[in-house]
Design goal:
The chain is α+β, with helices and mostly antiparallel strands. Strand 2 (70-78) and strand 3 (81-88) form a beta hairpin. It has a five-stranded antiparallel β-sheet, covered by helices on one side. The mean pLDDT is 90. Helix 1 (21-36) packs antiparallel against helix 2 (46-64) and helix 2 packs antiparallel against helix 3. The protein is globular and about 40 Å long. The chain has helices at 21-36, 46-64, 107-117, and strands at residues 10-17, 70-78, 81-88, 121-126, 133-140.
Amino acid sequence: MITPPDTLPYRHALTLPAVGSAVRVARETAEQVLAEWGAGARETGRDAALLILSELVANSVRHAAALSPNVTVVFAGGPGTFAFGVHDRHPYRPALFASAGTAPGRGLATVMELTHGLGGSAVVRGDVDEGGKSVWITLPMRLGGR
């Protein structure tokens, strides 16, 4: 069973302007966080996690920037689990489980295929004021020695 992100002991947060370079910075930060938490370059699921993160940040930049000048990424980790949430202040909550034929693009379908293929989970959490949301991905991942 995967540990819920809000109970994981290790955290790192990053807030960036909702511009194209946010994708690169978020990915580089994730690589650093994973290395610090003991997930090496060959860790199973690491590359897929980076791709999922890149897609979610790109979606926030592409679809939410008009209402959300920033995107925030929260990384969480603990024994056997790596999670990350991508937050923006656009109220639209995407349907994570829409079929590829009904979804506007393939990005979220790819995110879900990768997440489920790794044995992970995904959830969209709305802000209390309904003015924004976070998409959380939780993946099983060995974080070396922690």
